[in-house]
């Protein structure tokens, strides 16, 4: 039995989090979030700069599709070889993809740029499962807290790299290209650093927790969803992810039509990101104390409020909606991730469904807006926001 997979003795649920040993994992995830902020978020601008205005949404579509396809693979790989190996390979794949994306964007080679974007998406399907590694590293009663802190460090990584936007622009000038293109090179470096950092991380226990009943490292969708508790957990996670990405992606279009300038739209996104990540230090411990049902019910209520306030007249309501959207996602996502930490073999499949829900939501949402208007989309999202209540009803234990 390797040092990575050797279980550790049970720790009292009141014990402090082992932050020293978790620091490399948290640091790697912060670097990965910073890499995403400086690269893939700006992919549509690169496509526009390459003269492919009609394809500005294609990189995001490829990223979501690749993440959906790779999540199950990385989930099985981590079960077989351990979290450290799986996460390290995911970060390295992301570094290669971001490097290829930079080369393709700088050379004006659209196929190469799209290949890089797809590889980064595939990497995301792996390294986003770092949250399960954090949850497995602490007693079950402290998993919400560990997940909340992971989300907080993630948003700090995003804010830090945003503060270096001037340096990224300067790098672009030295390379004879734009800041958006240079950001992909910076992203490659950050992901490479994340791979090195995860290499020194020492997991505290195997990716199979106490009481885990799954032994096969590879499960079909039917097998994974036959495990008690997985279906209701997957419903909450996929709903939260799908609604969050759909409204996050399409609300800026409504803001633009309402006359908001670029700075105001950026402020909307910042408020949304704050709702998603900045309060993890509060929501995580609350879920540990009050249980999974609190996370699902609270998340559903906030997602519902976000969808209902989005179509209200006045741009101020858009800011309220985006913040509530992020916070509702946070509650449902932390609760669902904590629950799914009990079922490692189902994690990759369930994460893949979340990416599929997000991709379908943005694709169909654009059609709905074009044919019926944004309010119809918002009300449809409000109806879907009630689905985590079914998950709450099925919870047997927190």
UniProtKB/TrEMBL annotation:
PANTHER family: MAJOR FACILITATOR SUPERFAMILY PROTEIN, MFS PERMEASE. It comes from Deinococcus budaensis. Pfam families: MFS_1. Keywords: Membrane, Transmembrane, Transmembrane helix. InterPro entries: MFS (IPR011701), MFS_dom (IPR020846), MFS_trans_sf (IPR036259). One of its GO terms (molecular function) is transmembrane transporter activity. PROSITE patterns: MFS. The keyword Transmembrane helix applies. This is MFS family permease. The chain crosses the membrane at residues 30-50, 56-79, 86-103, 109-127, 147-169, 181-201, 232-251, 263-282, 294-312, 318-340, 352-370, 376-395. Residues 13-398 form the Major facilitator superfamily (MFS) profile domain.
């Amino acid at each position: 039995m390797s040092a990575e997979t050797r279980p550790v003795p049970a720790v009292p649920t009141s014990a402090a989090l082992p932050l020293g040993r978790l620091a490399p994992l948290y640091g790697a995830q912060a670097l990965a979030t910073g890499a995403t902020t400086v690269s893939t978020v700006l992919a549509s601008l690169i496509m526009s700069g390459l003269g492919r205005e009609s394809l500005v949404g294609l990189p995001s579509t490829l990223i979501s599709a690749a993440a959906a396809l790779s999540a199950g693979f990385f989930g099985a790989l981590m079960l077989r070889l351990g979290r450290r190996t799986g996460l390290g390979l995911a970060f390295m794949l992301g570094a290669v993809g971001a490097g290829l994306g930079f080369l393709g964007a700088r050379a004006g080679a659209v196929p190469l740029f799209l290949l890089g974007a797809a590889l980064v998406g595939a990497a995301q399907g792996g390294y986003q499962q770092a949250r399960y590694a954090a949850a497995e590293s602490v007693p079950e009663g402290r998993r919400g807290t560990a997940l909340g802190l992971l989300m907080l460090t993630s948003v700090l990584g995003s804010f830090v790299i945003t503060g270096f936007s001037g340096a990224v622009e300067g790098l672009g000038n030295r390379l004879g290209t734009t800041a958006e293109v240079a950001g992909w090179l910076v992203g490659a470096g950050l992901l490479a650093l994340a791979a090195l950092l995860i290499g020194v991380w020492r997991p505290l226990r195997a990716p199979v927790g106490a009481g885990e009943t799954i032994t096969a490292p590879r499960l079909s969708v039917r097998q994974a969803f036959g495990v008690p508790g997985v279906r209701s957990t997957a419903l909450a996670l996929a709903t939260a992810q799908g609604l969050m990405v759909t409204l996050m992606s399409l609300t800026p279009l409504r803001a633009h039509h309402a006359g908001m300038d670029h700075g105001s739209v950026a402020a909307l996104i910042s408020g949304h990101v704050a709702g998603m990540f900045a309060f993890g230090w509060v929501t995580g411990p609350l879920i540990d104390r009050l249980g999974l049902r609190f996370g699902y019910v609270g998340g559903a209520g906030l997602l519902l409020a976000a969808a209902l306030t989005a179509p209200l007249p006045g741009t101020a309501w858009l800011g309220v909606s985006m913040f509530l959207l992020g916070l509702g996602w946070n509650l449902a996502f932390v609760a669902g991730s904590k629950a799914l930490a009990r079922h490692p073999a189902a994690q990759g499949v369930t994460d893949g469904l979340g990416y599929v829900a997000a991709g379908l939501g943005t694709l169909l949402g654009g059609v709905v807006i074009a044919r019926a208007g944004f309010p119809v989309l918002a009300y449809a999202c409000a109806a879907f926001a009630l689905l985590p209540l079914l998950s709450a009803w099925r919870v047997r234990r927190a």
